[in-house]
Amino acid sequence: MKSSYKKTKKKREGREKKKMENESTESRNKARLAILELANMVSVPMSLNAVVQLNVPDAIWQAGSNTPLSASQILALALPSAASSASGDPENLQRILRMLTSYGVFAEHIDGSERKYSLTEVGKTLITDSEGLSYAPYVLQHHQEALMRAWPLMHEAVVDPTSDPFVKANGEPAYSYYGKRPEMNGLMQKAMSGVSVPFMKAILDGYDGFQGVERLVDVGGSAGDCLRMILQKHPNVRQGINFDLPEVVAKAPSIPGVTHVGGDMFESIPAGDAIFMKWILTTWMDDECKLIMENCCKALPAGGKLIACEPVLPNESDDSHRTRALLQGDIFVMTIYRAKGKHRTEQEFKQLGLAAGFPHIRAIYIDYFYTVLEFQK
User: Fold this and answer.
1) Rounded mean pLDDT of the chain?
2) How far is CA 353 from CA 143, 168, 271, 286, 305, in A?
3) For position 82, what pLDDT does the model report?
């Protein structure tokens, strides 16, 4: 009996050991696959950039039909013979489409030996809408040559944060670099419009903080698109002040109810019942943010508020798409704009608000990416 028991025990122990070894091997294999995917991750944004350059999303969409098309059919629409001396390579396009399908940009339809592709909800964000906007310029803006030169120097932000990677790669800060190149500046503005319009629609549908405001100042308002949408939704806002750099507002179009004012937010900000800003604080260091917010506080009456729309990091890291998008955006800011500019947590924003003179602060989570931060004087 004892001998039989010992044999059974050894067999059980052997099976458990084998199981543990198999699990360990599987875990190592998964780890190797994961690091290979991460090491080759550059293929994803570059492929996305390629399909936008080739106008693939609009070629598939065809005014809403979204009919699955083969790579050859897509090329015939994206590269018509009249506009291209080459017919293109459908096999190479298919390779790109297959890879992006694995990331949910396209849906693959296999018909016999032929693969066809349609747009998923992710892919549809790249379609040009009736206003000429989409997320496609945002993709292109991120992958311009000057920006790409900065990425291999990202580690320098750790070694010496006093010098920004973009400056080391291009000799001057990103904003001044854009300002000297109209084509880059134009693409950036179009990219921001493509991102801003859906966000502003979400704010106007879910945020009531503009009620009771008669004079609204938009700091860093660029062409005034956000003010235009706010005034259309809230007729109580009788006067909109679009405040930006003089060279920016000089090119801004005329908008009923909006006055374009040039200036420097680090010196002073026009007075208003409320001040609005979107994606301004994230590109500046803490002491600079404090100065901007102090100037806002000075420009507001008692009870007035600063409405700042910024990416807000979660306290804990996870692998959700939202957290990844926020953290990736944080690294983009560090590499392209300022080594110590950053996305912040809600608590970090509250600390800045208190230091700048705003005793009442609340965060309203409306949009998928941006958060409305309301600082009341």
Assistant:
1) 91
2) 34, 32, 18, 11, 11
3) 44
